[in-house]
Amino acid sequence: MRKARLAVLGSGSGSNFQSILDAIDRGELHAEVAAVFSDVPGARILQRASLHGIPARMLDCAGFRNKFPEEAQRKLAEELKVLGVDLVCLAGFMRLVKKPLLDAFPRRILNIHPSLLPRFPGVEAWKQALDAGAAESGCTVHFVDAGMDTGAVIRQARVPVCPGDTPEKLHARIQEQEHLLYPAAIREVLRNAALGND
Ligand code: GRF
């Protein structure tokens, strides 16, 4: 069976991207990362891509603060098709994906979010959980739809909120689980896609 081709979109450090690469290296994911895309110049995820010899480029978002312009999404969708991408993985990507990409990859775009959705969508979800006095938090991998962190849940992992937690400590505990969860969820989606029963 051929390897699945993944594209990864990220705005930050890319530790989840790294966990996907590590799972591939360990033989746990029959996949390859075809390309990485970022909206943040100099983002560490771009450096990680270049370290691993994976093509990476900036998205055409310059001048659009939080938006991912439709034209840029259309162009990306075309590029992903040319690259033969099977699955698009958002990994810390801070812009909303809309119609051109969603239509081009129905149920083939995943996101990882640092809370137990549907609780605490949006930014700094770990801080939202602390502020709300939640007893536990965690992370979710879900299919992406046109909403913010609203698509169908694929997998979740839970972590406790501990006495004395700071936002940083809680986020670090959640990230440990993210790095296990994302490769496992990708494996599950690829398995179902191959069987045609997703
Ligand atoms: C993760 O916590 C992810 O859940 C959220 O953004 C963070 C990205 O971290 N969407 P990294 O860039 O993968 O290290």
Give a description of the structure.
The protein has 198 residues and is of the alpha/beta class. The protein contains six helices and seven strands, in the order βαβαβαβαβαββα. It has helices spanning 15-25, 44-51, 70-82, 99-104, 125-131, 167-195; strands at 4-9, 31-38, 56-58, 87-90, 109-113, 136-143, 153-160. The chain has a seven-stranded mixed sheet. Helix 1 links the parallel strand 1 and strand 2. Helix 1 (15-25) crosses helix 6. The protein is globular and about 50 Å long. The mean pLDDT is 95. 5-O-phosphono-beta-D-ribofuranosylamine (GRF) binds at residues 10, 12-16, 91-92, 112-114, 139, 175, 178. Residues 10, 12-16, 91-92, 112-114, 139, 175, 178 line the site of 5-O-phosphono-beta-D-ribofuranosylamine (GRF).
The small-molecule ligands in this entry are:
5-O-phosphono-beta-D-ribofuranosylamine
Number of strands: 7
Strand order of the largest sheet: 3-2-1-4-5-6-7
Q: Which percent band covers the strand fraction? A: 15-25%
**Major sheet, described briefly?**
7 strands, mixed
Structural class: alpha/beta
Radius of gyration: 16 Å
| Alpha-carbon distance between the two ends | 18 Å
Question: What is the general shape?
Answer: globular
Helix content: 25-40%
Order of helices and strands: EHEHEHEHEHEEH
Number of helices: 6
**What's the average pLDDT?**
95
Could you list the spans in which at least 5 consecutive residues all have pLDDT below 50? none
